[in-house]
Amino acid sequence: MQVTHTSLPGVLLFEPQTFTDNRGWFIESYNEEKYIKAGLTAKFVQDNHSYSIKNVVRGLHFQQHHPQGKLVRVVAGEVFDVAVDIRRGSPTFGQWFGAMLSASNKKQLYIPPNFAHGFSVMSENAEFLYKCTDFYHPGDEIGLIWNDPQVNVDWHLAGEAIISDKDAVLPTLEDVHDRLPIYTG
What we know:
This protein is mostly beta strands. The protein has helices spanning about 30-35, 165-170; strands at about 1-5, 10-15, 20, 25, 45-55, 55-65, 70-75, 80-85, 95-100, 110, 115-120, 125-130, 140-145. The strands form three sheets. The protein has a six-stranded antiparallel sheet with strand order 1-2-10-7-12-5, with no helix packed on it. The chain is globular and about 55 Å long. The two termini are about 30 Å apart. The model has no long low-confidence stretch (mean pLDDT about 95).
């Protein structure tokens, strides 16, 4: 497995080894021992699976009191996946990292707790899987508006963004500044 440390500390890009023969291919999508050896020691407690159509943008989400780390991957289609550092006082505060994740490249991205997360769908549709380090708490979820000018994510959209009603009214980074986690080094 190849591991890339990204421009945001703690955000890791994984490329599992693919075994291919005349029948197709096989990957180990998660092996706790190998991920720990690669530096990912998080314990996962919940798996999620979503389906979205082209130009959907989901996010940018995070939980305030029950932050979730997420190991994400795509099993059908392609998405542009984004992590945003929302830790007040962090040297990379407000910066984002994005990566193309697809069923064909089999890459995975780990987004640590206290980072906002979102993705945009590049293909006609996509199925997105993620392992979470904490349970979803509906009353604890907040987020950032997908097109926050301070964060300025390039979503690589091929048309107009399709946004949920909930995500369309999320605040900006500046508006939630006092509710953001504090960087602890």
